[in-house]
Amino acid sequence: MWAIRNSNEEFIGYVGLYQTNEKYVIEDDQDKKFFNDSYGIGYYISLEYRGLGIVSSAVNLVCNEIAFKELHLNYVVGITFVDNERSHNVLERSGFKLVKLLKNAFKKSGEMRDVYWFIKEREVGQIQ
Predict the structure, then answer these.
(1) Cβ distance 67 to 19 under 8 Å?
(2) Is 126 contained in some domain?
(3) Whose CA is closest to 49, among 21, 78, 8, 95?
C-alpha cells in the first residue's frame, strides 16, 4: 500500500494491491478460478480531494509501474459497489473495463451487496 500525500506532505489517501481470493462470493466456477488467481486495486482519498483526478492517476501509476512492470501481472481487478459511481469513474479513467455485475458478492454491514467487476489488462508489448 502506498500513501497519497498533498503538496504539504500530509496524508490524504492511499492506493494498494491485494489478493482477491475468497474475499468475494463468486458463484460461477470459471469466474471463481479467474478471481482466485488475481490481484485487486484498492484506494481511498479524503473528501476534499475527490474529483480532482488524483486517485485515477495513482491507480494508473500503481497498475502500470508496479502490477505490470514489477510484478509481471497480466491484469488487475477492480471491484466497486453498484451505487459508488465515483469509484466506477476512477477505474474507467484508469483504463479499467467493466466485466460484469456480481450479485450478492460482498458482505457489508451484515448484508450482501451487489458489486461491479472491472479489469485492467496489461497492454500487448508492455514490458514484462
Answers:
(1) no
(2) no
(3) 8
Structural domain total, the chain: 1
The range of the structural domain enclosing residue 114 comes to 2-121
Q: Is 125 exposed, middle or buried (0-12, 13-18, 19+ CB in 10 A)?
A: exposed
Secondary structure of the chain as H, E, C letters = CEEEECCCCCEEEEEEEEECCCCCCCCCHHHHHHHHCCEEEEEEECHHHCCCCHHHHHHHHHHHHHHHHHCCCCEEEEEEECCCHHHHHHHHHCCCEEEEEEEEEEEECCEEEEEEEEEEECCCCCCC
127 in a structural domain: no
pLDDT digits (tens, 9 = 90+) for 62-92: 999 999 999 999 999 999 999 999 999 999 9
Give a yes or no: residue 65 inside a domain.
Answer: yes
CATH number at residue 39: 3.40.630.30
Residues 6 or more apart whose CB falls under 8 angstroms from that of 7 comprise none
Spatial distance between the Cα atoms of 113 and 81, rounded to a whole number of angstroms: 7
Q: What is the pTM of this model?
A: 0.84
